[in-house]
Specification:
InterPro entries: Apaf_helical, LRR_dom_sf, LRR_R13L1-DRL21, NB-ARC, P-loop_NTPase, Rx_N, WH-like_DNA-bd_sf, WHD_DRP
CATH superfamily of the largest domain: Ribonuclease Inhibitor
Strand order of the largest sheet: 19-20-21-22-23-24-27-30-32
GO molecular function: ADP binding; ATP binding
Number of helices: 26
CATH class of the largest domain: Alpha Beta
Radius of gyration: 31 Å
Keywords: ATP-binding, Coiled coil, Leucine-rich repeat, Nucleotide-binding, Plant defense, Repeat, Signal
Shape: globular
GO biological process, one term: defense response to virus
Structural class: alpha/beta
Strand content: 5-15%
Family: Belongs to the disease resistance NB-LRR family.
Length: 925
């Protein structure tokens, strides 16, 4: 029996019915005749929807039903494209529908509408209406054919009150980390056997290092066992150096050696060649006993392993390399002791793992109502710990023993695993996902194995693809996306990255296989060579909607030849989508792709060109009317074409680290649906267009550059701002009332704020106005980081240091050269780092830094760990005028670990109380 991709359209149909709802159609002001056509189409969709649950249940065992669902899925995509086209055209004709608050300002509205769009009655409009009507007729005809087939397939109407799925609780998953799984069990014998191979009790000295391969199938627990050994107390005490490296399928001797060096030295290094890094590694481990884990190795070439292992011979006797791999031939070229083959965990251990992840129990012994069913389900896991953990996540939401029996009796258990390593238990976990999560998970098949994806980036992609809809509780799409992500994480579909970065995740290889399986033909990767039949591959591409690929140093047009046939493509996604290292290699994309191919992909929702050395985008990019996500980060573009401002559906525009970018499109304000505009790292961007206040949907605005007509009060209506905001050019604010109207206090989502004036302190600066401006730019008390640069007033604002800013953890005050005293910051309860530089007017620092009422507070700077004073050229004395004998004495800087004073040539007196936690003291110049 051939395993076929599972198709679940319930969530997709929900989206379509939302768009076809009478209220939504009224908003579109559709041309005459089209509403009645859509109403007919909607009624037929209702008939399909009635049998959808039955079809989804039967597709596993009946290939004909799966083929019917595949046709229905293709039709659903075409209908979604059509409805999107209708909404986009309506928005083009009348942008006011997206911003109802502007109805009272028709003069401004007329400025927003291009001349060609000022009337509904244009030749373009007539042509569009005719095309739309024909398209609806075609889709309706296809739908009618599918309705005829449903009878032949014996599909039954759904019963009222059938099972529904929804996210429960607050959507927050249980926290995980790279430490051993607390639910680890059933592997003690394996652990002791490996420890015996390592001969911890005493080395013979006959070999400099030994290689111990752990061999087993994906998901069997090789990595978990290696982690348990790596963190064993006896192991920790027996090795001077340790390193853990995930190798995966790309065995690059240079890259792996560098990662080993960095893991041991804890210092990032960019070596130029293999010889240099291997010499350095050899010196570092010379005559030292080391433990190295090479996890998930696929390399079968002895020469590559021979080169990588040469520095290891310098280690002390007893040094050990543990290798985990699925392939016996891989182990054979590396091993110095016999392989350790990892078999499945005995059922008792699997029961414990299942019970732990399903209910937090040690086993089922004390829970007789679940015992029989739980143990039977454990047997279905066939000794696979990953399966038990994944299924345990599924059962966690099932409170009734009868629900467990339903899972036990599911027909999906009877499917053969074939050769794709996708076990029935993982397919079942997917099968029982809420329908809206199925689409989100399948989309992740675009990521290759071991790829670390960013949580925030993935949510933006989901949003752009139309997978996320505002919830009934009026939660924003981003919130819904993070809730869905956390639910998938809690069900073990995602794992936290071992790099330590909070926002980075990956999928286990077996789960990645599952994602590719369930995505079917809808998602494809240029790296995927699974299709041996060229014609079959071409047929598959015709159904494709989403595509990803790994960037090459040069990507020519030949590589994208397949895209010329994929006219309905929605996703053009080079990977990685974020900058992973400080060193960013050069990637080149041929102009034929940028100028000729991409403009032909009219249905694109996601377009990323990030990291490519492209100089400009074609004006035709403005024809991609469906586009929601445009990522040009890290490119060399100097400006975007003006046509970008016609992308009314655009939600995310990423221009981070575009170092040559000098301007944004003049009519950027037309992007009324834009939610995320990231222009961090664009140092050449000296001006921004006016009208940002019209983009009321903005959540991310990393920077605003004032001047040339753009005033700070344009922040007034941007109430949804989140994350980081830099306000550049505050010297341009001539009316302090503009600062008041900016209303930063109401921006509750802002976590980091940078206030920047010009570094040129010329005669045009007005210190009194600047003092009033910074006072009126009081931010929300939710702020976590604050930077003030080149401020020209003589005193800092009264709100700076107010204890109500209880979340502030980092403050930097630089080149505020006219200030004569420092703000009172000692009352901030969670301030961890304070940097003060270039404040030339300060001569003495006393108790005022801790607070005017310092003797009456319990502690000053209770959480401060790092304090820096730099380039304070007039500073002469720092004294608290307090001593430990003083009856009013309270602790100052109780947690200060690092104190740096540099470039303060006139400082001649420092008198402080004892600093009990100081570890680093640097005083220079």
């Amino acid at each position: 029996m051939v395993v076929i991709a599972e198709i679940f359209l319930s969530a997709f149909f929900t989206v379509l019915f939302d768009k076809l709802a009478p209220g939504e159609l009224v908003k579109l002001a559709l041309p005459e005749g089209i509403p009645s056509q859509l109403e007919t189409l909607s009624s037929k969709l209702e008939m399909i929807k009635a049998v959808l649950s039955d079809a989804e249940a039967k597709q596993i065992a009946e290939e004909s039903v799966n083929m019917w669902l595949e046709q229905l899925q293709d039709l659903a995509y075409d209908l979604d494209d059509l409805l999107d086209e209708l909404a986009t055209e309506a928005l083009r004709r009348n942008p006011m529908m997206a911003q109802p608050t502007q109805a009272s300002n028709p003069s401004m509205l007329r400025k927003l509408i291009p001349a060609c769009c000022s009337t509904n009655f244009t030749p373009r409009a007539v042509k569009f209406d005719f095309h739309t009507s024909s398209k609806i007729d075609e889709i309706t005809e296809r739908l009618q054919d599918l309705l005829k087939q449903k009878s032949d397939l014996n599909l039954m109407n759904a019963h009222p009150g059938g099972t529904t799925f929804e996210i429960t609780g607050d959507g927050r998953p249980r926290d995980t980390c790279s430490l051993p799984d607390p639910g680890f069990c059933g592997r003690e014998k394996d652990k002791q056997a490996i420890l015996a191979k390592m001969s911890l009790a005493g080395e013979s000295g006959s070999e400099r290092f030994r290689v111990i391969p752990i061999v087993g199938m994906g998901g069997i627990g090789k990595t978990t066992l290696a982690q348990e050994i790596y963190n064993d107390e006896e192991v920790k005490n027996s090795f001077a150096l340790k390193a853990w490296i995930c190798v995966s399928d790309k065995f690059d001797e240079f890259a792996i050696t560098q990662r080993i060096y960095e893991a041991i030295s804890l210092e990032p290094r960019d070596f130029k060649d293999l010889n240099m890094v291997q010499v350095k590694l050899q010196e570092m481990i010379s005559n030292k006993k080391f433990l190295l884990v090479l996890d998930d190795v696929w390399n079968e070439k002895y020469g590559k392993w021979d080169v990588l292992s040469r520095p290891f011979h310098a280690g002390a006797p007893g040094s050990t390399v543990i290798v985990t791999t699925r392939n016996v031939s891989v182990a054979s070229i590396m091993r110095s002791v016999p392989d350790y083959h990892l078999d499945g965990v005995e059922n008792e251990g699997i029961c414990s793992i299942l019970a732990h992840h399903a209910r937090g129990w040690q086993n089922f012994d004390a829970h007789p109502s679940f015992k029989e069913t739980g143990e039977a389900i454990a047997k279905k896991c066939k000794g696979l710990p990953l399966a038990a953990k994944s299924l345990g996540g599924l059962l966690r939401t099932k409170e009734n023993p009868s629900e467990w029996k339903e899972i036990l009796n599911s027909k999906i258990w009877d499917l053969p695993a074939e050769n794709d390593d996708i076990l029935p238990v993982l397919r079942l976990s997917y099968h029982h996902l809420p329908s809206h999560l199925k689409r989100l998970f399948a989309y992740c098949s675009l990521f290759p194995k071991d790829y670390e994806f960013d949580k925030h980036e993935l949510v933006l992609l989901w949003m752009a693809e139309g997978f996320l809809r505002p919830s009934e509780t009026h939660k924003e799409m981003e919130y819904v996306g993070f809730q869905c992500f956390d639910e998938l994480l809690s069900r073990s579909f995602f794992q936290r990255s071992k790099t330590g970065a909070e926002s980075r995740f990956l999928m286990h290889d077996l789960v990645n296989d599952l994602a590719r399986h369930v995505a079917g033909r809808v998602c494809f990767s240029l790296e995927d060579k699974a299709e041996s039949n060229v014609q079959h591959r071409r047929d598959s591409l015709l159904k494709a909607r989403h595509s990803s690929f790994i960037r090459h140093e040069y990507d020519g047009s030949q590589r994208f030849e397949a895209f010329s046939r994929v006219r309905k493509l929605r996703t053009f996604l080079p990977l990685p989508v974020f900058k992973r290292h400080r060193w960013w290699p050069h990637f080149y994309l041929t102009n034929q792709v940028v100028n000729d191919l991409l403009p032909q992909l009219h249905l694109l929702r996601v377009l990323s060109l990030s990291g490519y050395e492209i100089l400009q985008l074609p004006n035709a990019i403005g024809n991609l009317k469906h586009l929601r996500y445009l990522n040009v980060s890290g490119t060399r573009v100097e400006q975007l074409p003006e046509s970008v401002s016609e992308l009314y559906n655009l939600q995310t525009l990423l221009l981070r680290d575009c170092s040559r970018l000098t301007k944004l499109p003049t009519d950027t304000r037309n992007l009324i649906n834009l939610r995320h505009l990231d222009i961090a790292g664009t140092e050449e961007l000296k001006e921004m267009p006016v009208g940002l206040c019209k983009m009321a949907s903005l959540h991310t605005l990393s920077k605003i550059v004032l001047g040339r007509g753009l005033k700070v009060n344009e922040l007034r209506d941007l109430s949804n701002l989140r994350g980081v905001l830099s306000i550049i050019g505050l010297q341009c604010v001539m009316d302090a009332q503009d600062a008041r109207e900016a209303n930063l206090t109401s921006k509750q989502g802002l976590e980091e704020l940078e206030m920047v004036w010009s570094s040129d302190f010329d005669d045009t600066r007005n210190g009194m106005i600047e003092t009033e401006v910074i006072e009126l730019l009081k931010p929300s008390t939710n702020l976590r980081r604050l930077e003030v640069k080149h401020y020209g007033g003589v005193e800092f604002p009264s709100w700076l240091g107010d204890p109500s800013f209880s979340q502030l953890a980092h403050i930097s005050l630089s080149d505020c050269r006219h200030c004569t005293s420092l703000p009172s910051l000692g009352h901030l309860p969670f301030l961890e780092k304070l940097r003060i530089s270039g404040i030339q007017g300060v001569k003495t620092v006393g108790n005022e830094l801790c607070g005017i009422d310092w003797p009456h507070v319990r502690d000053a700077f209770p959480s401060l760990e790092t304090l820096e004073f730099v380039d304070m050229v007039s500073w002469e004395e720092w004294s608290t005028n307090l001593s430990e004998d003083d009856g009013n004495f309270r602790q100052m800087f109780p947690r200060l670990r690092e104190l740096i004073i540099a470039g303060c040539p006139n400082l001649i007196n420092i008198s402080l109380p004892r600093l009990p936690s100081i570890r680093v003291l640097r005083i220079k110049r």
